[in-house]
Amino acid sequence: MVKLKGVLTMNLNIVEGYIEIEGKNKILITALHGFGSDRFKDVIDKIRELGLDYAFSELVPSRSAVDFLTWEIAFKAAVATNSWAILPTISKVDSVDGLEIPNYNLNKEYAKETPLWKRIGELVVKGKVKLIIDIHGMKNISSWPDICVSTNGLSSASKNTISRVVKYFEKLKFNVALDKPFKGGALIRYFGKPPKVEALGIELKRNLRFFKTNTPKIMADLIRELSSEI
C-alpha cells in the first residue's frame, strides 16, 4: 500500500475500480453514482425520441450514467474532515470483465460482488467505520425537496443521527424530506444496522450541484457535526 501526502491510500499493483481515502474518524463518504458522463442522458433521450429503445435495451440499464459532480463533493468533504472515502472510478452503466453482474450499478444487491463493496465491508468488520454516507443527485422537479435523506424507512440509521442531519439542513433553510422521493439503495440497506453501523443516503437536487456552489463545504460541516458523536 502506498500513501500519498497522508490522504490517499492505494494498491499500486492492481486496478480496483475505486479510489480510497484513509480517514481518522469513523465516517465513510461515498458517491456510488459519482463517476461517468452527464451527457449520456441526452444520448438516451435522443434514442427514445427516434423510437430506437428496442435496439439498445440490452446496452442501456439506466437513462443516467452519473449523479453529476457528486464525486467531487464527496471527495472534498472527506478530505476536509479527515473522513474515510471509497469513490468509484467506473460508471454505473458500464460492464466489467470478470464480474458476473449485469452492469456496475453499485447501489444494487448484485454489487456485493464488486471490490468497492468488499472494501467497505472490510472497514466495517475492522470497526474503522461506524457511519456511511452515500451522496446522490436528483432532478430539479418542483414537487421534490432540495435534499432527500434516505434511511430505508428510518431503519438504516439511529433516530438521533437522522434527526441531527435533518435539523442541520433545515437550519440552512433547505426543504428536506425523509425517504421521499428515494428510500435509499442496496448499500445503506445492507450496511445500515444501527446501533453497530449506521448508513444513510443524501440526495442533492441538481441546482445544488453546479460550478461555484458551496455544497462541498455544506457537506463537510455536516460531517464535522456528526463526527462528535460517532
Biggest beta sheet summary = 9 strands, mixed
Topology order in helix (H) and strand (E) letters? EEEEHHHEHEEHEHEH
Strand order of the largest sheet: 1-2-3-5-4-6-9-7-8
User: Ranges with pLDDT <50 over ≥5 residues?
Assistant: none
What is the CATH-assigned architecture? 3-Layer(aba) Sandwich
Which helices and strands appear, and what pairs or packs with what?
Layout: E1 2-4, E2 8-10, E3 18-21, E4 27-30, H1 40-49, H2 53-56, H3 70-81, E5 84-88, H4 115-125, E6 131-138, E7 147-150, H5 159-171, E8 176-178, H6 186-191, E9 198-205, H7 215-227
Parallel strand pairs: 4-5, 4-6, 6-9, 7-8
Antiparallel strand pairs: 1-2, 2-3, 3-5, 7-9
Helix pairs in contact: 3-7
Please explain how this structure is put together:
It is a single chain. This protein has helices at residues 40-49, 53-56, 70-81, 115-125, 159-171, 186-191, 215-227; strands at 2-4, 8-10, 18-21, 27-30, 84-88, 131-138, 147-150, 176-178, 198-205. The protein has 230 residues and is an alpha/beta fold. The chain has a nine-stranded mixed sheet, with helices on both faces. Strand 1 (2-4) and strand 2 form a beta hairpin. Helix 3 packs across helix 7 (215-227). The mean pLDDT is 94.
Task: Using brief descriptors, characterize the structure shown.
alpha/beta, Aminopeptidase, 9-stranded mixed beta sheet, 7 helices, globular
Short description:
This protein is an alpha/beta fold.
